[in-house]
């Protein structure tokens, strides 16, 4: 039985240090999965631009960074779409967040993925221009990759 086509969307900017952790984790997952069943895409886009990337897949795995007050650097958070608040009054298409983007896609009868998993990695800083993550985030990446592969059953056989 074939598995459904899955998209792993690594979000962030690799030139902003820890902000690129989503891209790094997605690329490391790609090394351990079967390309027949999983596509990996890097994205720094936001808002409605994401619809062109995500539509047509049955399953979407989003991997991004987050910086919360009191969060532990390198901690992996699993979020549901219901955890995301929609944008109330966006003034530009880039200000439309992920929850609103999905809702717009559904209302337009686009093929938005039915299954969506969102992973967010607690980071130290997303404002420093540097390639690569901070040592704290870098140390957490192998465990994060393994966790996502196991939870999402992505292991290449």
Automatic annotation (TrEMBL):
InterPro entries: Pept_HybD-like_dom_sf, Peptidase_A31. One of its GO terms (molecular function) is aspartic-type endopeptidase activity. One of its GO terms (biological process) is protein processing. Keywords: Aspartyl protease, Hydrolase, Protease. The keyword Hydrolase applies. CDD domains: H2MP (cd00518). It comes from the Bacteria. PANTHER family: HYDROGENASE 1 MATURATION PROTEASE, HYDROGENASE 2 MATURATION PROTEASE. Belongs to the peptidase A31 family. This is Hydrogenase maturation protease. It comes from candidate division TA06 bacterium.
């Amino acid at each position: 039985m074939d598995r459904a086509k899955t998209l792993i969307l690594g979000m962030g900017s690799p030139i902003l240090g820890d902000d690129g952790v989503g891209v790094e984790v997605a690329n490391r997952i790609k090394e351990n999965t079967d390309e027949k069943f999983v596509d990996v895409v890097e994205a720094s886009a936001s808002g409605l631009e994401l619809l062109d990337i995500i539509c047509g897949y049955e399953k979407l795995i989003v991997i991004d960074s987050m910086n919360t007050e009191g969060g532990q650097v390198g901690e992996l958070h699993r979020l549901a779409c219901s955890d995301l608040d929609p944008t109330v009054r966006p003034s530009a298409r880039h200000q439309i967040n992920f929850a609103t983007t999905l809702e717009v896609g559904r209302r337009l009868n686009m093929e938005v993925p039915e299954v969506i998993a969102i992973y967010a990695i607690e980071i130290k800083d997303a404002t420093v221009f540097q390639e690569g993550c901070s040592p704290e985030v870098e140390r957490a990446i192998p465990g994060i990759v393994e966790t996502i592969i196991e939870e999402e059953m992505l292991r290449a056989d």
